[in-house]
Amino acid sequence: MTWVVLGSTLAAAFGIALGVMLPAVGMGRAISQALDALARQPESERAIMRILFIGLAMIESLAIYCLVVVLIILFRNPLLEYLLK
What is the pTM of this model? Predict the structure, then answer.
């Protein structure tokens, strides 16, 4: 049973690392592209910013979903129920 706990902890750590790192890269790229678009067409600032904030909220929700899944794996591991029987 300790191997399952150790494996799930390592998988959770790896999952949260990827689940936070990849959305952060996506957010950086989105902000970079929005600044590039603002430099090209400053008169469309309102539309670009509105779309940027909606996109950033969707990207951030992926990181939050990853955090929820990792917390479920750490604190309510479904594999432990099968091992305890």
Answer: 0.74
